Amino acid sequence: MSAFLNNFRPDPNEPDTRRIWRTAKPLLRDAVVAYAPFYPDYPKLKVSNSRGPSNDPSCASARLAGTELDVVLYSNTHSFGEMQERAWRFILEHHQQIEASLRRKLYARHTKFLQQLHGEVLPEDKQYQKYWKSIESQVKWDDPSAIDHLFKLVAIGLADSGLDDCGFSSFEFQTGWDRDHGLGILMHQDRVLAADGMTALIAGSLESIVSGAKYVQEYDLDDGDFSLLGS
Q: How far apart are CA 74 and CA 55, in angstroms?
């Protein structure tokens, strides 16, 4: 077993198909969920004393940046090895390029939610209007820097399959825009493939991951995403 794999322990919930390692964040270290425009009660929420901070999309610890995250190995074949290790090595060696790709996708996601807020939510609800008035001046909402106040990276998933000999990766975020599902961004090396709920796109066989990404791309393909449609 390689030194990389020795870092991991079996996931108690899925010991045959997942391994977990807690380590330093390689990117997006300072991004947090300072505001949650769709959740007026967010400022009052506290971290549970019994559970403590967690990666759950709804946990109030999303406000705290933290220096670590979970790296999770996913295996459809019950084996762990070179595909995941290559993906992790690529992330470490190209973290600036990957962060730039993630920031582009996060801002595209943010822009869509912001349009929904202004077009559908605020005109109809005084409670949301009151909360929005209290946070509106705190962030440059139409600037890419806004994502540092609305998304927190809490985990990176690594698959045992990919488009070549490097495995897929999935970057898992708590977000103030969706505290029920969070956000998972599926990538291959530095290319963004698709975004969905947290961990929704990374588990399964090569065929299921690719088909899941294609399904999302049919209705949600942003400029700069790597299209799998037609392949």
A: 17
173 lies in some domain = yes
Q: State how many domains the chain has.
A: 1
Candidates 168, 204, 216; CA nearest to 189 is 168
- pLDDT digits 0-9 by tens, 89-112: 999 999 999 999 999 999 999 999
- Answer whether residue 68 is part of any domain: yes
Closest to 96 measured CA to CA, from 25, 28, 149, 174: 28
Q: How far is CA 22 from CA 25, 50, 71, in A?
A: 9, 21, 6
Q: Assess contact for 70 and 155: CB atoms under 8 A.
A: yes
Q: How many CA atoms lie within 13 A of 173 on its CB side?
A: 30
Residue 1 has pLDDT above 70, yes or no: no
Angle between helices 95-116 and 82-93 in degrees, nearest 10: 80
C-alpha 72/C-alpha 57 separation (Å) is: 16
3-state secondary structure of 100: helix
Which pTM was predicted?
0.96
Instruction: DSSP letter for 33, please.
Output: B
